[in-house]
Structures
1.
Amino acid sequence: MKENDHLVIRDLEINDTAHLVKWLSDPRVLEYYEGRDNPFDKEKVKEAFYGPRGDEVRCIIEYDGKAIGYVQYYPIEEEEREKYGYPVEIVYGMDQFIGEVEYWNKGIGTSVVSKVVKYLLDVMGAEKVVMDPQVRNERALRCYEKCGFKKVKLLPRIEWHEGVYEDCWLIEASKNESVEV
């Protein structure tokens, strides 16, 4: 996927291990992704990001040729769809982070999310794209709302993060509600 001359989303490669270790050992990134009490070393990255995980597609976000973040997307399995009220639809989930903090608050995350959502809806045939960000992650929620996501359901105390269960929002985007950014 290519957004413009600056932004490229490409498949994760083994050479990206060092980027993931750097990002996932930075407390500023871990505050919202995995937890500051859960830093990653090389072995943990290899286990979490390079092992088999079904139909999950793992990608690196590049900006001006520099790896700056990570995005993954995957079809939501039937059992989980039914649990959250999506019994017959084609639903994809996605997760992402900008690991190079100097690239935060520049609209890059909004461009990435918009691009991946458009791809999932237009190319992969998704009827909905869902995520479950923590309620306290206001910056991410603003980004997702700019990309057409709507809050569907509060998921109380669902994600173990830094020693407590955090509330998350189930949010969704669909073809007729997504926004081009």
2.
Amino acid sequence: MASGGVTYGITSLLAFDDGWREESFKSLTFQFYRGASTIGLIVRETTQAIWDSLQPVFMPIPTEEMWKGKAQRYQQLWNLPNCIAAIEGNHIRVKNFAYSGSSNFNYKGYSSIVLMASADADSLQQLITSHVGNLLRKQKLNLPEPQHLPGNDDGDPFPFYKCGDEAFPLLPYLMRPYPKRVVNSARRSYNFRLSRGRKSIECAFGILTSKFRIFEGPICCEDETVKKIVQAACVLHNFIRVREGIFLF
């Protein structure tokens, strides 16, 4: 594991405050007299240790009661009943990986990997894993049983769900806007409410980028190292939000 000085340098590579200076792999190499491959190894070990230590506490798989609490928070802050989270993909800019060709080249004109994440009403990141969709389909994410929407006690119970944009399919656990070609007054109101609820994940990505300077430019690492850096940054985002705010799990 890295020594204290190198670990501090890696931390400043990920995060910054007003008094910190921006670090890079190259500057760490010269500052601590370590080879580039050694710095890369230390970064992978440190970011993995951050994830292993913080994920069980600050990004756990919610229980049924925790989901209900998140739904109440969504209703309180965004006036969106039964919603437990917003989901969206975000392009993380990277330097093109070796031998990857154009596989990571996106429609925006640069190389990237896609961070598919969800956030609750307070913009706390949740479940950054590609297996979430399968877990939802198999009903293994402890979602509560459907319940009546406010003011509609005589209607059918409505499932708890995540909200997404037009890129996502309409599913029992995932709500998306109506297409513009079929919008009427009531559907326009629904689209507005759903769009407002999605701001929590947009705010989460904005906070992540503003707090962690490494996301302001392309990340020049191997594929697995980039994934570990992103995981560490996301769980540190939650750690900071919880410690500096009033958010409860």
3.
Amino acid sequence: MVREVLVACSDRSMSLGITVWDMNTGDRLLHIPTCASPFHGLLCLRNQFLVASQAHKHGSFGGGAIFLWPLNKPQSPLRSYPIEAIGPISSTKDGLYLVGGALSGNAYVWEIMSGRLLKTWRAHPKALNCLAFSGDDSLLISGSCDGVIRIWSMISLLDVTDSGSLPSFIHCWSEHHSSITGFLTTGSSSSVLVSSSMDGTCKVWDLISGRLCHTQAFPTSVTAIALDSEKQILFSGIADGRIFVNILNVGLGLENSAVISEGPSMVLRGHKGSITALTFSFSGSLLISASEDCTVCLWDVSDWVITRRFNYQKGRITNLVVIPQSSLVSVVENHQRVCYGLRVPVLDKYPQPVNSSSGTVTLLPTYCSIEDGNMTTFRSTHSLNQQILDLEQGRTPEALQMKVEMSVENRMWATRMAKHVTEMNRHLQSRLLDLVQYRLSLSSDPDFSTTERRKKLKLTVHNHLRRNN
């Protein structure tokens, strides 16, 4: 069983920093000073780095800051200073790209291993509050303080040949009436999105068709959301400190009026202030909640009792992240610390020309033994091509291996993108044809009222989708 540690930070003061607790013993393992991160501003990159945008800029004049700590040497952050303050951040699961959102509504995409700023554009008219990726990293989801959600294609965002034009969103939803507070993706191929808002609702969306499927209403503002390990139960933390537990409803709504429900919910009570963050342990056996009351609670999901409570000094907790304890310090048999991980440069402040000599970056891990003192690293395509040229003069096997690795990685990325586009088209065509067929059959039946037709349409489409999934 993997031992887990809990990482928490606040946005109130740089001196509060980041605190790391052992979830099994409750011991405080580590304190990382000089960090104040806003909501959705902290993440763990490939279980090797902590990355945090800074609510209180440090050492930057007129701009923002993003700090990065190697988990095997957490006291020495790498400091990057974007052109403006960054709030929410998110990364792709493979650790290749980092996105950040600003108060101006601008969004930024960096290539992590080169530090290159690939794209910057005006994503929203208002400040960005949330950023997330779809399950296969093909879509970027952005939410703003005015309740608007937009869906972007990563293919278009990473198209450096089209850098002069502004990217176009795939979907734009304005059904929320207040600030967006959270995103979750689930469903087959992660095609379902759950959003939460200060308007007191959680909404379920179909990312492929853009349809609003379901709306769950709550007594007050929804401030944080989480899904269980099976992606079937939704946990919604609200402003009065309660956590509501509901079965996730992914049924399709009809036309422009999605089903709004206030059905029975199980309610967890353990905080005295607004819920600020929710997450789950890797095993799924613990729900973890943070609150304005400066406490963190660990809930046993088998009987919903609090098994442990952490006190976080004097600041509200804005972010919770669970990581393996082994990520903090890697130890070999002789108990020596091993320097492992990625070499990450400072993030660019401004976009670089497409024909920049730095070249594009491809993810190319080089696996070496610990005894050799080497580590897994990532190099730019430009430097790799130069190494290949040098090696080819001697026609060594290493040169051929490097060429194969580059080709495989590029083909894998292209295959993933093509597969996702094909799947989106297939689902969309199937749903449109079925809906048209059912509507035609119902419109020709004089025995059904409009309400009955809608009910029958909803039932048949829901059953059809359930069979397909």
4.
Amino acid sequence: MPHRDFATGDADALPLRLVAPETLDAALEALPEVARGWARAQGFKAGAGAVLALPDAKGGLWGALVGLGDETARRRGRFIAASAASKLPEGTYALDPATDPALAAETALGWLLESYRFDRYAEQFAPKARLVAPEGIDAERIRAIAAGEALTRDLINTPASDMGPADLEAAAAGLAEEFGARMAVTRGEDLLAGNLPLIHTVGRAAAPDRAPRLIDMRWGDQGPTLTLVGKGVCFDTGGLNLKPGGSMALMKKDMGGAATVLGLARMIMALGLKIRLRVLIPAVENSVSADAFRPGDILASRKGLTVENNNTDAEGRLVLADALALGAEESPDLMISMATLTGAARVAVGPDLAPFYTDADEDAAAIARAAARVADPVWRMPFHDPYEPLIEPGIADLDNAPSGGMAGSVTAALFLRRFAEGTRYAHFDIYGWNPRPAPARPKGGVGMGARALLEAMPDLLGLA
């Protein structure tokens, strides 16, 4: 849950004005004389994220100004005003009622996201500035989104010592209990009996208390069907294709897809969307032991397709394959997978964009429009059919790691599409980590694409 909520009551709240350079003069003229003189004496220019506390005539705190920056800064940034939550003096603040409604909603959400702290292992500085929910915004929706994002961040930030497959299962179970969802889990050798061989293969080398499993959660009994599939590789050594130490440092985040779909599921359930939701999470640890799967092995899958395993470090697509095949058997109205799948995606678009794949132009357009509205940037990538032969090795139906090193994200997506065949499908190849602090996005685990998908749900699923 977020560490902060909106402040209650605004009778004594301090005025908070969001100001752009082009509106600065008018904003200053509207201030009380002492506050106006102070702002001018301080040379406040309304630069992006600049904060100025304003005195009253008795030397107390009257309120504050927050700079939005010029047009270029606003185009390049998002949640610019949210950084004020960490910069302002202690107090309860209220936005000017004349604030643009869209800006007020973005600032309110950003304020809660900026106030997030991961404090499980060490005390963290918590912002002391509180914000009254601005009039005219959907405060309950913003709370639900912030809570879902906080869940995602907490799960990703937790190291693998405390976030193995069983811990991820426990997190899903807690969510299911909170919202009255149903959950079933298939573990260990039962994966073979349940025809989920790829999940078992990838996770079988882990210690018994970190056995592989498939988490299957269902919620809702009316409306269109949505299946979310999240990669839950709780730690990825690379298997026998062992990663170098530098590449292993952030592998606690390799369950970022699972964390993101659980965060999105929390948003959906908290808001009571009229859909029938299913969440599938293959939760494994890709370890090294005498029982580890090997390069060159031919692997069986739930769908019946055989896979030549040419890299044990391309394990995420293997566990997703069985989960997607299972999900596709029910022919949901829409199936979405989210995974920290390829380094190639990060090379292509960096850590800030969530690349996604879909064959449906209408779905792509709906997701892109929604992403722009809620400042959750995405970028469509191609399911490029001419690359299909790259994932067909000849000795087996599919190759999980084609040689050549080109189009790695595209070939991974094409591999997954084979297992979602016959279903309306979108795949997100996310990073799940913010390498540098930014407004509303501290360094560390971060959700990508979830808010865009939530915003797009009415168009994607025909919700009223």
